[in-house]
Amino acid sequence: MDTLAYLVPLVLLPLSLSFLFFIRKSNSSSSNNPPGTGGWPMVGENIDFALAGPQKFVYDRMKKYSPDVFQTSLLGEKMAVFCGATGNKFLFTNENKLLTSWWPQSMKKALLFPDFVEDSLKEVSALKRSFLHDILKPEALKQYIPLMDSMARDHLEADWSPHDEVKVFPLLKKYTFALACKLFMSVDDPEHVARLAKHFTLVTSGMFSVPIDLPGTAYNGAIKGGKLVRDELLKIIRDRKKEMTENKETAGRDLLSRMLLVTDENGEFMSEMEISNNIIGLLVASYETTSTAVTFVLKYLAELPDVYDEVYRGNTPIYIYTHTHRESLYQVPIIPSDEECKSLQ
What we know:
single chain, about 350 residues, 16 helices, about 65% helix, disordered C terminus, oxidoreductase activity, acting on paired donors, with incorporation or reduction of molecular oxygen, iron
């Protein structure tokens, strides 16, 4: 009899969950939502996404539901996925109008301080557009090129030249992270950069996994790594703040110094946690995206020796091509000219 008492809840629980799942599915299908499914309760479609990979996952649902937009549930959040040239145009032309930048709750929990997890991404990213424009305009970017070139040469000499064969993507991630640390915070000590990179890799490896915070899971590792990254950044920010106060520094030598000097419309300075959040956001944005783009450039140069020879002689500019749809192809040069920079603003 005691055994039966334990078995009844075990049988009823999955039946109840299945019933709720089908009720939810029928309700969502009758509402004004894109075609698609939210998957299983709590799990969503994370398992299908992990098994199929991003590209196959999207293409399968474009065939099954719609080539333009479909709904799904990933990372514990309901999502609508826009596809094709029309969907991309809609996204890019409606930023801050119909759409705004957004991170899943699971990502914010891994990356940000607990005090900011419930805030919108707009509130978390407190940098003004005018401030971002000043540090990203062509004139400012030109100042970074000598440093980028010098670090690239040192990186090739230390990590590429001694070997007959190398794994490109991991090495490029190492280079881009070191470059970001130097440009954003003037951190160039190899041991310090390596320690930060180790913690940051824990975050990037687990923040897109199934958001189950249990010991041993990738997501649990991301949360632990995020705390270590935040602790490191707070120490860097406090040391710089003390140094600038002692030296009465009023000009920003890098992004961190400029963040410590910038004020809002009320004359208030950014808090240390706000600065840390913004730096983490910039590190995430610049990490795998840049490494992936340069990896593909090197891949195609290796596969197309004629093109490589022309580039090596300086006769052909290198372009990064971004496919948004089979009928739509966009190209952006790696180092744009002044005219191209103006046209891209």
